Amino acid sequence: TSHERWPLGSMAKEDAALRAACEWDDARFLRHFFPAMTTEPFNPMHLDFFAERQLRHGSRGHKDVTASPRGSAKTSVKGKAAILKDICYRHEQYVAICSANDELARDKVKDIRDELDTNSELIRVFGPMHTRDWRMSDFITANDCRVRAFTPRTKVRGFLWHNIRPTKIVLDDAEDPETCLTPLRRERFVQWYNNDVTKLGT
After folding, report:
1. Is 161 helix (H, G, I), strand (E, B) or coil?
2. Predicted TM-score of the model (pTM)
3. Do 25 and 89 meet the contact criterion of CB atoms below 8 Å apart?
4. 3-state class of 149 per DSSP?
5. In whole angstroms, how far apart are CA 86 and each of 49, 112, 128, 152, 180?
6. Which long-range CB contacts under 8 A does 122-127 form with residues at least 24 apart?
7. Which DSSP symbol is given to 93?
8. 118-169 pLDDT, tens per residue?
């Protein structure tokens, strides 16, 4: 029931209906909970992403690649809002986010954590998510979801938590100019991805 899934969230009938309506409708979720992010119409990339998520309906084992120009809000939608939705509905229990260096990876995780702390409508409808495990690069929510940062230099084998591996892995700006500088470095990155990242998740 709604109360069992969100014991700290609003129990008003209209909010229960809102949660049900948004669960598999990313566009509606974004429009309601992130109005500042949705002042412009969604672009074709967003609409394709929303359609794929709705079609999959929580099924697992998918791999996606998105390439689009800077300014197209791919990180805002796929790397932030979608992960926040996964957390609120607990569709993903363990999210690992990779970027090229520690600072960049930490900032992406911190951005998600801070939204859970400051988005008053998310807090009102789904309940507060803050816990004592609330670090900038690794935090655990009140509904027992974990989000952590890592980089291509992180030893990712054995990324276990509660005896589960990451249920969602996001690589966002995981390469930098130095990584791509020579064929050897590019090959090492590909080997790291194939040998470690693809075997990391559930």
Report:
1. strand
2. 0.93
3. no
4. strand
5. 14, 11, 15, 24, 32
6. 122/33, 122/84, 122/88, 124/9, 124/10, 124/15, 125/6, 125/9, 125/10, 125/15, 125/18, 125/19, 125/33, 126/6, 126/8, 126/9, 126/19, 126/88, 127/6, 127/7, 127/8, 127/9
7. S
8. 999 999 999 999 999 999 999 999 999 999 999 998 888 778 999 999 999 9
